[in-house]
């Protein structure tokens, strides 16, 4: 992000004092601009859809469904491309981290993070990186590889079976992209897209693209 095109940030947290603190911390950081804030799910979804920020800093625990409800509401309302979500939470519980990432967040950091580290995390997710507080990354890796210490099975074995690139292809397919458009977006050949698409269909046990799109929609992928 440059000064001419700053990274536009929206804050979602039900504590106004905390939002004010985050806004003040980010105000001094070059290339970052807080364009709005909200303290409730419905208010947040409406404002995010209207303002179309680049990154949403998202609290996890709020009334009326919390951060996951915001994620799903925005994703449903913006099928042409939702902003990037970075969870900023007091919770470091594995179930909160995994549920938020499953819903579509690109990263998860705790509220113990300092201002400069938070600004760096925002820039990184805006550039396409996944960002986690150090001990939280293990939760996500264990969940996606099925190596969690929990006796429960992975939350979605079919989704977990996809590689990172296959998941990218799946998201674009769910948005209605053609194979050529996916190839251009991911800088790969059409043949490679076809291979990934075939693997996605096989791993998700779907018979065709229409079925795959419906399958993805039920998981809020797109």
Give an account of the 3D structure.
- Residues 8-126 form the Response regulatory domain.
- Keywords: DNA-binding, Phosphoprotein.
- GO terms for molecular function: DNA binding.
- The modification 4-aspartylphosphate is found at residue 59.
- One of its GO terms (biological process) is regulation of DNA-templated transcription.
- The protein has helices spanning 16-27, 41-51, 66-77, 94-103, 115-126, 137-145, 157-160, 164-174, 179-186, 190-204, 209-218, and strands at 7-12, 32-38, 55-58, 84-89, 107-110, 131-132.
- It has 222 residues and is of the alpha/beta class.
- It folds into two domains: 7-145, Rossmann fold, CATH 3.40.50; 157-218, Winged helix-like DNA-binding domain superfamily/Winged helix DNA-binding domain (Arc Repressor Mutant, subunit A).
- Strand 1, helix 1 and strand 2 form a beta-alpha-beta unit.
- Helix 8 packs across helix 11.
- The longest helix has 15 residues, at 190-204.
- It is globular, with a radius of gyration of 18 Å.
- The chain starts with 6 loop residues before the first strand and ends with a helix.
- The model is unreliable at 148-154 (pLDDT under 50).
